[in-house]
Amino acid sequence: MSVTEPRTVTRPTWQPRLVAVLAVTVVNTVLALAAPLFGADLVVAPQGQEPGALAWPAFTVFTIGFALLGWGVLALAERLLGARRGRLVWTVVAVLIVAGMFLPPLTVGATTATVVVLQLAHLVVAAVIPVFWRTSRA
Fold first, then answer.
1. Other C-beta atoms within 10 Å of 99: how many?
2. How many CB atoms lie within 10 A of CB 118?
3. How many whole angstroms separate alpha carbon 134 and alpha carbon 87?
4. For the segment 26-59, what is each residue's pLDDT rounded down to a tens digit?
5. Considering only CA atoms, which of 20, 23, 54 is closest in space to residue 36?
6. Which of 40, 66, 73, 108 is deepest in the core (most CB within 10 A)?
């Protein structure tokens, strides 16, 4: 009689994480395209600079860029620190960064509608953190 050990099935983590990155990018792009419907002109005036409009491609590029950067940092943390510890460190850092993301829209000259759209874009990005956290191998 042979003894067989139970096999542990490890599900791939890249698929739900890729879907999360793509979803957050699409939602932020749609948000930027729909902003004029909410009365947001997406014109911001950083202190000491001329006012400038934020175009929807900027939303797309920044969203996908920072989502991919976050994914890469999570993968590196999981590899260097182990899945559980890496996930914990990444989550703490990600939450702190997300909290900090809410400050810049409040410091630029912009209409209230524009500030609301910018804050919503940051909330959309923050919504991805649980997806990354839940799909960890630990």
1. 11
2. 25
3. 9
4. 999 999 999 999 999 999 998 888 999 999 999 9
5. 54
6. 40
Nearest residue to 138 (alpha-carbon basis) of 72, 92, 77: 77
Which residue, chain included where needed, has tokens 């993301």? 101
Residue with tokens 């874009």: 121
- The residue count for the chain: 138
CA distances to 9, 10, 62, 117 from 4, in Å:
15, 18, 50, 56
Which two three-digit tokens encode residue 129? Answer: 């953190």
Run of H or E including 29:
helix 14-34
What are the distances in angstroms from CA 105 to CA 53, 66, 111, 118, 122? 13, 17, 10, 6, 10
Distance CA 13, CA 45 (A): 40
Mutual angle of helices 112-126 and 14-34, in 10-degree steps: 170
Contact (Cβ atoms closer than 8 angstroms) between residue 28 and residue 121? yes
In angstroms, the CA 110 to CA 33 distance is 17
Classify 82 in phi/psi space as left (phi over 0), alpha (psi -120 to 50) or beta.
Answer: left
